[in-house]
Amino acid sequence: MEKKKRKIVSIIMPCYNAQYYISESINSIIKQTFKSWELIIVDDFSNDNTKEIIISYSFIDDRIKIIENNKNLGVAKSRNKGLKSANGRYIAFCDSDDLWEETKLSKQVILLKKYSVVCSNYYLINNKGIRLKYIKGPKIIGYDQMLNSNYIPNSSAIFNKKLVNTNIEQKNIGHEDYLMWLDLLRPNKKVFRIQEPLMSYRVHNNSISFNKLKSVFWTWNIYTKELKLNFFKSTQLMIINLMENIKKRFITSSL
Predict the structure, then answer these.
(1) On the chain, which terminus has fewer CB atoms closer than 10 Å, C or N?
(2) Is residue 2 over pLDDT 60?
(3) pTM of the entire structure?
(4) CA–CA gap between residue 62 and residue 241 (Å, rounded)
């Protein structure tokens, strides 16, 4: 029996009650022009039709693998399960309501021989998939810059396991992806952000205001508890972070 060739990219997709959007997300991955990938979907004990949907896709495409949690663990622990199962040389993330442009992986993989992490600009879309804004960010990102704001959209990011050379894991806190990228960049690594939108990030209108408040609290905890910065430095960074978020939402290009 012929041994299956190892896939180059492992894509981690946690999901919980994602029946309305996950098909679009999976289809955006299946349509990639770069074909050497595996999609690891971690179902976090969904109680809607998510499980049935992802199983049907696993029958259609054998590059799709499913991990089922026997209880709800949250997004960080679910991503960690996916990371442990990943066999690819490169690791990418895609949330179950976000969408990829068809050429995303093709354009990013080329750059991973030079950069540890590659991400991209992105679109904000609403519940119906209508584009709201085009969000731009700096081309080259380092640790000090990332302290000011999270410039790595999680669903746009892909990293080279060999160049990272560290155990990647997300802690079960708010903004778990932000802390993970900060930890990864700490040894003077650089991120290349492709200056075109290769991903669409879905904003759910009914939770925007509440999430903004939670975001401030989570970011403060990262500065003070996780990074152990003093009150003055944390306050300074918090002000910069808030201003950068305002800039992202209101100054960035409208469509």
Answers:
(1) N
(2) no
(3) 0.93
(4) 42
